[in-house]
Amino acid sequence: MGSNNHNKISWFADSVVEEIGLPERFTFPFYYNPHPLTLLAAEELQHYLETQTDLEHNFEVSEDADEMAIGKMFGVLIVADAAGRVGYLSAFSGKLAGTNDHSRFVPPVFDMLTETGFFIKEKEIIDAINKQIDNVLTDENYERHKRAFEQLSLQAEIEIAAFKKQLKDNKDNRKIQRDEQKKILSKDAYTFFEAEMVKQSQYDKRLLKVLTDNWKETLDGIEAMLQPFDARIEALKEERKDRSVSLQRQLFEQYLFLNKDGKSRSLLSIFEATAFGKPPSAAGECATPKLLQYAFVNGYKPLAMAEFWWGASPKSEIRKHKQFYPACTGKCKPILAHMLAGMPMDDNPFIQSAQESLQLEIIYEDDSLLVVNKPSGLMSVPGIDVKDSVYTRLKAILVDIEPLIIHRLDMGTSGLLVVAKTREAQKHIQRQFLNRTVSKRYTALLSKAIDGIEGEIRLPLITDIYNRPLQKVCYKTGKKSITKWKAVEVVGDTTRIHFFPHTGRTHQLRVHSAHADGLNVPIVGDDLYGTSADRLCLHAAHLEFVHPDTKQRMSFDVPEDF
Fold first, then answer.
1. What is the pLDDT of residues 48-85, one digit of tens each?
2. 410 labelled catalytic
3. What is the pLDDT of residues 146-204, one digit of tens each?
4. Distance of CA 103 to CAs 72, 89, 511, Å?
């Protein structure tokens, strides 16, 4: 396979292309099995990454990656030139070793790191403003006045609190005296005594006012000395904010993305119509938009794409070394909608209706509820594009009765679902789920043999807003998720396992299986966190709850078919 570093392309031998054949349509970037040509390109790129010595980047591909290791997404794009020659382009997401300039990889859509570019110049100005702010904050007079203000503020708080406590004691003591004197003094004598008590109370209040006024005067004097410094800091911060907003907008306008018809749109205009309203951080820096841009600019026809992860996994997401992944939805989907407009593309599997062969089995039914065995590949409730689901099928069966969904299973997960027929039954069983008195057991087939017999996984999960529907681990804002597990048997290179979820977070079992801090082994067929197969080998095999009417405990079991 030849290479030309000048135009970033590596050419396939004609015999290789003839043997494999070209893809009929471009890859659907958000769910795909890599085309054989992209597999060849990725293999060659991975060989380069394994043997290269010129990239000063700590990928750390071993399982025991150190804290400084940073893996990265790489992409390949199969292209054809005007003469029909077929080759591939390579790219990485973001920056590599702190720069965009690498001979083997296509450049960014817009290189903000060029020395003569406006970004560098404006960043230098913003850095200078930061330096000015630091100079003010570390000014000797400012620091001295700041320390004095903090110390005197604390002293004032202590003294005023102590004096208020003394006034309260005085007030309590006067109350005691009033009670005692009222018993022994005449009416006229007590009137004179009460007047003295009022004078003492007023005197205490005047002393408190004098104390607080004196402290306020002292602190106001120091604040007056701090005011010019604080005003300067605030003005610099406001200037920094204005320049940063302007710079960001200018950057967004410089990112201009082409499509096959030569039409160009800026990053800003692309994201204005999305839920974000403006481009998220690092939008446009992913591998696939870079590859398509270079192809369009240089007159190449895009044929197929693939992206793979190289190196250590990030702590929050699930990324396996050398594994292929779809393009991200939050940052890339709006951009690729423009860049791929009008190109024949593989079918979007997310809008394909479920096969009629997927039979929904009702295994129990009465006047209040029914329990079904959901097949893998059928949604629990209708989606935006796909209407076929457990809900719609039951609605068609239950004449004049609205099926009330209580809990859900992922589209790929098979097994037991309880559905209510009445609001009372729905609320009763929902309460059992909330109180975690429903007993559930899932069976899964893990893609590798694992060590250990049983254990518990605790990982806080949160939706990855830039890559829905994926979940990620976040110890700051994630919701706790707990799963107990027990290995059943090793079957070849796989492990059959039972999961007992204590919580019911989205994709909980899939993330707990695949994440490095969980079992670190994806479930067979997990197209989101592992590798796709005929089906996701995850099955809700056991379900037990209290019947809302009879109050009897009901138990259901359906064995997995994998």
1. 999 988 777 667 765 554 555 678 999 999 999 999 99
2. yes
3. 999 999 999 999 999 999 999 999 999 999 999 999 999 999 999 999 999 999 999 99
4. 18, 11, 37
The topology under which CATH files domain 351-557 is Pseudouridine synthase (3.30.2350)
Amino acid identity, position 291: L
pTM: 0.74
Over the range 83-118, which residues count as b (16 or more CB within 10 Å of their CB) and which as e?
eeebbbbbbbbebbeeebebebbbebbbebeeeeee
Q: Which of 329, 529, 322 is nearest to 412 (CA)?
A: 529
| DSSP percent split of the chain into helix, strand, coil, nearest 5 | 40, 20, 40
Residue given tokens 């450049």 in the structure block: 107
H or E stretch covering 541: strand 538-546
The three-class DSSP label of residue 142 is helix
CB 122 within 8 A of CB 247: yes
The secondary structure of 236-288, three-state, reads HHHHHHHHHHHHHHHHHHHCEEECCCCCEEEHHHHHHCCCCCCCCCCCCCCHH
pLDDT of residue 355: 63
Give me the residue spans of the domains in the chain: 2-110+260-347, 135-251, 351-557
Name the active-site residue from 101, 127, 385, 410: 410
Closest CA to 105 of 301, 256, 284, 287: 287
